[in-house]
Amino acid sequence: MSPYLTRRTRLLTAALTLGLALTACGGNSEDDENEPDPASQVLTQELADGALLTLDDVGEGFVDSTQPEDDEDSDLGCLSGIDDLDAGTKAEVSFDAEGNAETGGVLRSVLSGVKSFDDTATVTDALKAFRTAVESCDEVNVTDPTGFNLALTVTVDDGDEIGDVDDQVRLTGTGQVSTGPTETYSYDLAFVASRIDNNLSVVGVIDLGAPGEAVIGALTGTAIERLNDAIG
After folding, report:
1. Is the residue at 43 inside a domain?
2. 65 or 180, which is more confident?
3. CA within 20 to 30 Å of 218's CA: 17, 53, 66, 143, which one?
4. Which of 167, 155, 163 is nearest to 194 (CA)?
């Protein structure tokens, strides 16, 4: 697996998980701006950081791969964001585990993010807008100017919510990424965005090269418990 494909996939991973729901799912317009809600307590940075997943949560073989925000755009087709949405506090972390040559360099990425807003209405509207967007997004097939291609079948999970939350959106994406006919790898995405009061928690798991063990439910449950503890 080439370093270029790995880098592009990591950028795409960040855009799909953290960028999509934490900075790009705004639902309020200039004519309908929500005022700060005195009853909503914005988390401190320390509390938001403490609500993230940790290396101990994701298991052996992972390293912290959190990077500064990248300005490079990622075209995600119908999964692309709606509007920019600011929060009072935000925190995010990512972890990577990469296989060896015998496994073809299989890569698993886990991302965890938290945003705390000034009012509950803003994040409530945002998650509703996000749900509407992904429910109409069955397939993604985009190619950037370099030839990097993403092709996914997207499915929204309507099953029972994970953890003690006020609202939640869960989706999976199954397909492939490639830089041409000679370098094509499977790409599997599991993603959960959860709202508790005026706070949003996001967990994403991405497998490049081969699907791994299904862990999104357990990781989301841990993240939800952490966020509820932080809220108090």
Report:
1. no
2. 65
3. 66
4. 167
Tell me the pLDDT band of 23, cut-offs 50, 70 and 90: low
pTM: 0.86
Q: Could you tell me if residue 216 is inside a domain?
A: yes
Domain of 126, in residue numbers: 3-16+54-67+88-231
Specify if 133 maps to a domain: yes
Tally of structural domains, the chain: 1
Q: How far apart are CA 176 and CA 153, in angstroms?
A: 10
The domain that holds 157 is classified in CATH as 3.40.1000
Average pLDDT over every residue of 183-190: 91
Q: CB-side exposure of 94: number of CA atoms within 13 Å?
A: 22
Residues 10, 94: Cα–Cα separation, whole Å: 10
With bands split at pLDDT 50, 70 and 90, how would you rate the model's confidence at 37? low
Per the domain annotation, does 192 fall within a domain? Answer: yes
